[in-house]
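Handout, page 2. Input:
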Amino acid sequence: CCLHFRFKLFSPFSPTHAHKPSSSDSSSYSFQEHNGQLRLPIKDQYRSSFAPEWHCSKESSVAVVLPQKPEEQKQTVELITSTEDDVDIIKVHLKPRSETKQSLRMLTDEVSQIQEVRYCLKTLREQMAARQNGHNKHPADVKVNQPSVSNHHHDPPDPHLGDGREESVKLREATRRLHAQLKEMEKRHQEERDRLEADSHTCRVRLAEQSKRLEEVEQQAEEKTQQVEELKRQLGNAEIENSVLKEKMAAAETELLQLKEKEEEEEEDTAEERCAELEEELALLRKKNHQFDDMLKSQQRKIRLMIEQLQNSRTVLQERDRAVLDLEERVAFMQAENKELRDHMEYLLAGQDPPPSSVENKPEIVYSKPLQPTSPTNKALPFIKVIEIKS
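Output:
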C-alpha cells in the first residue's frame, strides 16, 4: 500500500486560475470504497476567514491509498494517475502489519498538520502580495487624500498584519512540533535497531554454543559406539567359551555314565575313586559354567544399558539439530527485520521512496506442537511444524 500526496499549484496573481470551491472541497472526510482512497481537504475554520481570497488559492488534495487486495491495486493506480504537468505526487509505502490502522491515523494527522502549515503560508503570501499591490497601485491617492482623511478620523489598523503575525507564530509552532516528532521517530528507530542488533548478536552466540555442544555430543556418541562394539566382541568370545565348556561337561557326564556302567565289572575301589574324581571334575565344570552364565548376563545388561544410552544420545542430537534450525531461522528473520528497519531509516533521513517490503512473501509458522506417543515410552518424539507461505 502507498500514500499519495497530491498538490496542484496556481499563481496567486493569475486570473485564469481562479475557481470556486466545489463539492469535492468540503471539510468532511470522504472515503471511496471501490478504489480505497481517502481524501483529506482543507478545514473550514481556515477557509472561512479568508473566503475572498479563495479564487486565487492553490489547490491542495491528499489521496491516501488504503491496504487492499492484489487484484485491486492496478485499478487504484490507474484512478490516481495524474495527467497534468503541474501536479506533484509523493508516494509513501506502508508496511502491511497489524499496526497499519494506527500508522494510517498518524499519517493522516501529519497530513492535516502539513495542510494547515501550507494554507497558513499561502494566506500569508496572499496578504503580503495584496498589501504590496495596494501600495504600488495607489501611492498618489494616499498622499492627496491624507489631509482630508486626517481631518475626519484616523483609519483603523490593518487587521491582516495581526493575522500574518498569528499565522507566522502558528507556522513556527507547527515547524517545531514536526521537528520534535521527527527527532522522536529517529530516536525510536535507533533504539529499535540497537535492540534488534543485540538480539541478533545473542542469537549468534547461542548458535555457536549449540554447535560446540553438538560436536561434543557427537564425539561422545562415537566413543559409546566403540565401547558397544568392544562389548559385543567380548560377548561373542564368552559365548564361544561357554559352548566349549558345555560340550566338555556333556562329554564328562557321558564318561561318568559309562564309568557307572562299568562299575560292576571293575573293582569297587577303583570305580569309587574314578567316580569321585569325575564328580569333582563335574562340580568344577558346573561351577565354571555358572560363573560364565553370570558373566554373560552381566555383559548383556551392560549392552542393553549402552544401547539405551546410545538411543538417548541420538535423541539429544535430534533435539540439538532442531534447536539449531530454529535459531538459524530466527537469526534470518531478525536480519531481514534489521535490513527493513535500515531501509526505512534511510528513507526517513533522505526523503526517498523505501524499498518494497519482503515481509509478505516470508514464511509464517502457523503452529508447532510435539507428537503424542500412542504407547508409554521414555523416548522424546520430534515436533510438528506447519509453515504457511504466502504466494
